[in-house]
Amino acid sequence: MGAAKQVRPLTLEEYLALEREAPVKHELVEGFPHAMAGASDRHNRVVVNLVLALGPLARKRGCRLYASDMRLKVDAATVYYPDLMVVCEEDPGEYYKEKPCLVIEVLSDSTEATDRREKLRKYLGLPTLQAYLLLDSRTPRAFGYYREGEGWVYREAEAGTLPLPCLGGHLDLAEAYHGL
Question: Per residue in 64-86, pLDDT tens?
Answer without folding.
Answer: 999 989 999 999 999 999 999 99
